[in-house]
Amino acid sequence: MGQETIIGISIVAALAGIIGFHSWLHKLIKFKMDESAILKFFNDANNSLKSHSTEAISENTEIKPERVTTVCTRSKAIHRTTKEEGHWILKQ
Description:
Helices cover 65% and strands 11% of the residues. By secondary structure, it is mostly helical. Strands 1-3-2 form a three-stranded antiparallel sheet. A hairpin with a 6-residue loop joins strand 2 (78-80) and strand 3. The longest helix has 42 residues, at 3-44. It starts with a helix and ends with a strand.
């Protein structure tokens, strides 16, 4: 292999690593921002309602229902209620 080939492969590998890291970081930041908005909604909501539906969270946070489900499922602070399908509650 020539020196140019080795340099080319190194550059491509470095760029792939940088793009992969950037993508991972973007997903993490997006998740944390969405999770923060949902947690803020829970904290600001009337305390008499302990659980909230995916649709209610979506309407109040302007996050798509599918994304609300994804974030709530992955969050360590939120879990699905056992009583009602599609309802979420803060972990105690």
